[in-house]
Design goal:
The chain has one domain. By secondary structure, the chain is mainly α. About 25% of the residues are buried.
Length: about 160
Amino acid sequence: MKFSEIATRLTGFSTPVFGVSWQPPKSDVAVAKAVIAYLEDRRALYNPYHAEITEHVVLSLIDTRRELTQILKEDGISSELAIHVRAIRSLCREFIDSQQQREMTRYTRSGFDDYLFNQNLGQLRARMGYHVAAICASYGVDIEGDLATILPQSIIETD
């Protein structure tokens, strides 16, 4: 999905891309592209729920947190972009923490436990989709593949 389509379908969100004189710094565009490219390869964000294994999702999100922390350590990242990168990292941490709490109670992965896992994963994907859309719209980044499925429903193509 092209960033221009994402930007035109977002409601109540102002982006600097459409400002008269603002052009995002090259470094921010490069960082935004790197973040999106990394997330595009995180199957935990878009695989069908029945295909997910709790431990694999947690490990993937631990890797995602680690990568985003490295990105945040780079000099020159703008505060606007950093807000979204930190928010995505925080969402990963929240999901991991919720899974660790459930592991402490030693649930078996069936029935109600599957429901809780899927519910938490759905919330993670929905909340992360907002930040992915904001990054793409603000920095002119296209989304390739399945990552587009987590974008807010109002901006997903309906054709």
